[in-house]
Design brief:
- With 68 residues, the protein is mainly α.
- It has one domain.
- 76% of the residues lie in helices and 0% in strands.
- It has helices at residues 2-39, 48-56, 61-65.
């Protein structure tokens, strides 16, 4: 029973976890790039005024993130 059921389940779970963490890292990287592009200067320092203004203001997100 172990070799026929339990062992394959463990293998499939590992495949699923690997896939999940790969995609999770991609999402974290995309959000990090978006933050750096919008709220940091060329040397990576956070522009706190811009960040606080965004966080406290009422913005149209389409204009901020989907610039033409």
């Amino acid at each position: 029973m172990y070799k026929e059921i339990i062992e394959p389940l463990g293998f499939r779970a590992k495949e699923h976890n690997d896939s999940f963490y790969l995609e999770k890292n991609r999402v974290v990287n995309r959000f990090t790039k978006l933050f750096l592009d919008n709220y940091c200067d060329d040397i990576g320092e956070i522009n706190w005024d811009k960040l606080v203004e965004f966080n406290s203001g009422n913005y149209d997100l389409d204009k901020i993130y989907f610039k033409e």
